[in-house]
Amino acid sequence: MLKIKNLHASIEDKEILKGIDLEINAGEVHAIMGPNGSGKSTLSSIIAGREEFDQTQGEIIFEDTEISEMDPDERAHRGIFLSFQYPVEIPGVSVTNFIRTAINAHRNANGQENMPANEMLKKIREKSEMLGIDRKFLSRSLNEGFSGGEKKRNEIFQMAMLDPKLSILDETDSGLDIDALKTVADGVNSLKSKDKSVLLITHYQRLLNYIVPDFVHVMVDGKIVKSGGKDLAKELDERGYEWIKTEKAV
User: Start and end of every ABC transporter domain (predicted)?
Assistant: First the structure.
């Protein structure tokens, strides 16, 4: 589904990614962990096409198509979803109107007509109930006055509604208490299938207790320096990252 080859990226002429190679197949869950400043969030932003980051070298191939020159909305219409670490507030635009506009833009870009209103309402009701979202929440302005947990739950609600092929969750667990974390994880797990993939960016192993990864990758200084199974995340939780840095230096 996703193949990244020798990816280099910078922001304001500072090199952040220094040669990333990564492959994600359909149906797989990959987790990327690493210390602060290692480039994890930059990687997620580059895949999604955020314009403040510059891809200076390498390839990003999504479903056999090179997407490096595509705008963020083109990538989204192809099925890439990014859940932000710090979701922005959009006063005056309700959660329902935002998601209706996003879904219909996606459908129109793929040659489909707008989703019928009754079908849209049914889907909104189904996904909001799945994530324990109060109906009143859906009429509020997008993320305005939301708690950290509400913002993250809303991101997963958007993901559930848009039903992307590749979901990138950038530190979705940050700032969540254990109940909110379980709700978010249940939402992600309910959407997993053999045709869809997930890339989790996280500092902590605790999220991986609820969303079990097939592969764990460790980033240090803009490179993936170690990969393994779910047990690697437990080892990092117990030992930290210094042993990885030492191993890399050797």
Answer: 2-246
Domains of the chain: 2-249 (3.40.50.300)
Q: What is the pLDDT of residue 248?
A: 59
Strands 54-62 and 65-66, by their bridges, are antiparallel
37 backbone dihedrals φ, ψ, rounded to 5°: 80, 10
- C-beta of residue 193 within 8 angstroms of C-beta of residue 115: no
Amino acid identity at 3: K
Rounded CA separation 137/145 (Å): 11
pTM, entire model: 0.89
- For residue 8, list its beta bridge partners: 18, 57
Residues 213, 87, 21, 62, Cα dihedral to 10°: 90
Enumerate residues 6+ apart whose C-beta is below 8 A from 81.
158, 159, 162, 164, 166, 167, 168
pLDDT computed for residue 250 by the predictor:
45
3-state secondary structure of 217: strand
The closest of 63, 87, 82 to 200, measured between CA atoms, is 82
- For 84-126, what is the HEC assignment? CCCCCCEEEEEHHHHHHHHHHHHHHHCCCCCCCHHHHHHHHHH
Q: Which residue numbers in the chain have pLDDT < 70?
A: 245-250
Q: Which two tokens stand for residue 50?
A: 């955020």
Q: Is 15 exposed, middle or buried (0-12, 13-18, 19+ CB in 10 A)?
A: middle
d(CA 218, CA 7): 16
Show Cβ contacts of residue 151 under 8 Å, excluding neighbours closer than 6 positions: 87, 143
